[in-house]
Amino acid sequence: MRWRATVICIFVLLLTCLSFGAVKEYGNDIKYPVQAAFSLVASNKDVDKGHVLDRIEALAEQEHIQIYRPYLDHTGKEATYLFGTNGKKTVYSSNRKELLTNDLSGMYYTTRSLPSSFETAMTERGLTYKGADLPWYLLPYYFLFTNLRSLAIWTLFFVFALLLFAVKLMYAKKSMILRSLGLFEHYSRKELLQDLLLMGASFAVSILLFILYQGSISNVFVKSFTLLILTNAVILLLLMLAVHALFFINIRSLKALAILKNKQATPLVLFVWLVGICLSSVIFGLSLHKSLETIGKSANDIQVLGKWDKAKDFAEITWLDTLSTHTDDNHQIDSDYFKEENQRYQHFLLSFSDNDVIYSALSSLNETNLQSAPDDFKKELKTNGVDPRIASKVRYVNQGFMLKNKDIFPNNDYGRPAADAVGVIYISKHMMGDADSILNIVNYEWFQYSSLKANQLVVQEVPDGQKSFLFNHKQDQQDIFAQQEEVNTILVQLNFSFMTEPSLLTKFGEMAQKSIYRQALIRDRLTQAGLTNFSSLTNVSNHLILERHKILSQLIGSVIALTVLAIAQCFIIYEYIVSLMKQKAKKISVWFLMGQKSLVLIGRLLLPLALCLFLAIGMMGILTGNRLMVLGIGLLYLGEIVCMSFFAYQAILKHRIQIIKGDFDIL
């Protein structure tokens, strides 16, 4: 019981720690302990803010829920107002006057789903309402299948089954004695019940400790953690049942004479054991390969974050879609509203100095975007001299982007182009032959319907090999770190103040939504421009730091799991070798006394294991392509087989007299 309890407790502890890490990462993405969210959009300015906020407060108290509303305080920083406190003290803001200075439009987060009557109440007040539950219940799926830890977790489950089986085989002789006395079935059920109760009690303690840590019994983080623990418990339960059934079949199938000959398992069970060792070795290798890749990537991420420090006080605005609420019966956008909205964007963007806004966007005519484009459109681009291959290297930026890059890469040479031009196109020396094609791309994408033309931009040749930091914050999270630096990028610096033609007005909405701004200035500039269609701000640098912490958390979890798995793997292989050596211990002892060497006998005995591990190593090599890692794992397994065989052989020689007399327990 002691060995089984140790194995179960260690694996329960590991799974609890990994589950805690997963919930903590979920908490980084969702700042509040909530299960649902809704957005409000004020379609006109006649909505009474006070009445709406009173209705939200009344709903929170009536439904006994909390509603979190992020907003910008008077310093321009993001704060959170909490509805439903019922007069209790809270770490969140309760400054109603400051909340009233913000627009009603934006995101609201609730501790559970809202009744349909609330949507009706908001709609009657002239607001557009959209609500949905947050998918916290999908956390087990992300935990088991989508992140860095997933492979390590499945290896953990697999090795748990093998380890538990190896421990049970240590008591095969005792089980055979109980079988001969007619007590094996009762004893087997008792063992299974003990294991299940121990696992259940261990997981229950972990849930209780997490509830105490959270200070709540029903918030979304407790529910997520409990769901993860229950998922892990179900998987362990199935594995325990499978191991118990396999061991039960093994003992039932063995003949009493086999135990006297020191055979602990049938050939079928030994084969299943070998297959398990092979599969767990492959999964272990894949997990190790992924972890090593992440370690290398994390070093690059640290450098990336160091460069983001140049924009540590810049924030991205989460904009709301208001155009869909200004359409006619034919679903056509109100042209007057569209024009007014873009004028507001223009006013907003031009109110920032060069140092206070960073704009960076890849050309929309790049190869990736055009893969699924219609053939007629591709022909049109070709007619206009647009080459998607070159467009993939074109990036539109502003003066703020260039100033930050000059600060990050002080050795870069950008020449001395005229400052009073519509813009500057920086082209690497080796690409100057493509200058005409680049001008065609800029013309088609920006100045097709304008009196301004690309040839009015200054073309500046720059040395080959210059790096650009892209200030990329719009890609998928897994790509953000990988796509921050680029060499020989074609930079098209646009001077916004020259782009005042009505034909270019629609560009300002696009540029405003892709730019990042100095956070302290955003609130005042939004108010001045009359823009209300935003929900929140995200400090980009802090956001990326959280992403890095998430990766490091997954990496640490993987390393801990892999360390335990490596030890467990060694124990499983050791038990397999000892089990085989016990079967031939008497023969080896007799051969030694007769002066014959037993190396050939031991070699034949361990040949299936060696072939199994050789197959696993070959599969690792094919799946990972990492020869150095595969060689290291191969040497580790070879060393373990040699060492374990040597120690077992020495133990047999040391106690050969007792073994010949039939005492095998000394091994």
UniProtKB/TrEMBL annotation:
The keyword Transmembrane helix is annotated on this UniProt entry: yes
Top-level lineage group: Bacteria
Residue ranges of the TM segments: 151-171, 192-213, 225-247, 268-288, 555-578, 599-622, 628-649
Keywords of this entry: Membrane, Transmembrane, Transmembrane helix
Name used for this protein in its record: Putative membrane protein
The organism of origin for this protein: Streptococcus equi subsp. equi (strain 4047)
